[in-house]
Amino acid sequence: MSSSSALDFYDAELRTHYEHLRAAYEISPGDEVLDIGCGTGQSTRDAARAAAPGRVVGVDVSERMLERARELTVAYPLDNVSYELGDAQVHGFDPARFDLAISRFGTMFFSDPVAAFTNIASALRPRGRLVLLVWQRHELNEWALAIDAAVGEAAQLPPPPNADPFSLGDAEATEGILVRAGFDAVRFEDVREPVLYGRDIDAALEFVSSFQNVSGALTSMNQKDAARALQRLRETLAAHRNDDQGVALDSRSWLITGRRR
């Protein structure tokens, strides 16, 4: 799988969840929009089409992701999009510039989430909106449970700091973070959709093997154990393949909305 194909695979994986996020944007022409953890820019470009002539800024910590985002943006007649390399926890946003901050699974890895969301709130105008997707708790996500079980105990070790994709999965705790950061009217919508890994088992296996906990677990094993783990993972993915959706595993996220006070 090429580098660009692997990056684009992520968009395909999350497309059913993303439809809920996009429906909640409610972007109006002229809005200024901030996309946190924009990745390869799918959500940034969609927001830009809705916001024109307003501008949309995508921010991400990965230069590789942003390079792909810029490549893809060139293919569209969009002149109201820009991308910035930066960590939203400390990035120097223009104060009170944006009407809306959005994020598609891009806010779970802050070392200090209260500080991060406070910084994001500072970039919003008073009563500016926050609309984001995060994973619910690990134990509610079949994709994570099935992948971890297939790989074995080495995949189930506690994640390193700032690397837990389920860090905002507890709704009560996350609401507290957002309230302390300056948001109110915080609401959580339960989203239950599959994650989709395509129709090709080899490509799905390659993509899933790149997950941080999976790749770390495989690296820690000897060659024979790693081969066995990969075979179990292949069998798990094949067992979840169907003619309609390809490889599909159940998953749950929160669609979170709020307003800056």
Task: Give a topology summary.
Blueprint: H1 3-13, H2 15-25, E1 33-36, H3 42-51, E2 56-60, H4 63-74, E3 81-85, E4 98-104, H5 113-122, E5 124-135, H6 142-151, H7 171-180, E6 183-196, H8 201-209, H9 212-220, H10 223-239, E7 241-242, E8 246-260
Parallel strand pairs: 1-2, 1-4, 2-3, 4-5
Antiparallel strand pairs: 5-8, 6-8, 7-8
Number of helices: 10
Q: Tell me the series of helices and strands, N- to C-terminal.
A: HHEHEHEEHEHHEHHHEE
CATH class: Alpha Beta
| CATH homologous superfamily descriptor | Vaccinia Virus protein VP39
- Return residue spans where pLDDT drops below 50 for at least 5 consecutive residues: none
Estimate what percentage of residues fall within beta strands. 15-25%
Q: Assign the structural class, choosing from mainly alpha, mainly beta, alpha/beta, alpha+beta, or little secondary structure.
A: alpha/beta
What's the number of domains? 1
Indicate the CATH topology. Rossmann fold
